[in-house]
Design brief:
Elements lengths: L5 E3 L10 E7 L7 H15 L5 E8 L6 E7 L2 H10 L1 H11 L3 E6 L5 H9 L2 E3 L8
Helix pairs in contact: 1-3
């Protein structure tokens, strides 16, 4: 069943422009679980056609009361495209699984999209460290 809840494009990484993210749906009530999975499956089918998404994988806790999404985009604009194209799914998933708790991991801190995420999104932004000073 894990294949139903993941989408990964391998060998398509572009240098230092990728954006990784972790989104958590923190509280999925038992009565909402099946619908949550249905909506997630529908969204994953749509995600497969979005070229800017390299990885979109869902993981449930063992008791299936929470869902963690590992995401990777070819650039920060990809996350905006994803939210725009899949907002109807994201709204329903949030209603079923709780407000999204987001963390962003850009490989570069430059660009308008990164600035907008820092200023306007309710997500934790992390800085990339490559061991150089």
């Amino acid at each position: 069943m894990p294949e139903l809840y993941s989408w990964t494009k391998l060998n398509t990484r572009s240098a230092m422009k990728n954006l990784m993210a972790i989104a958590v749906f923190p509280k999925i009530e038992k009565e909402n679980l099946e619908r949550f999975k249905e909506v997630a499956t529908e969204m994953l089918q749509s995600i497969r056609s979005q070229d800017s998404i390299l990885r979109y994988e869902l993981f449930f806790t063992l008791d299936e009361t929470s869902c963690v999404v590992l995401e990777e985009y070819i650039n920060p604009a990809g996350v905006f495209e994803h939210v725009e194209q899949h907002s109807k799914y994201l709204v329903e998933l949030s209603a079923l699984g709780g407000k999204i708790q987001g963390n962003m991991f850009p490989l570069s801190s430059e660009g308008d999209e990164i600035s907008e995420i820092k200023e306007k999104w309710d997500s934790n932004m992390h800085m990339y460290f490559d061991g150089k000073r």
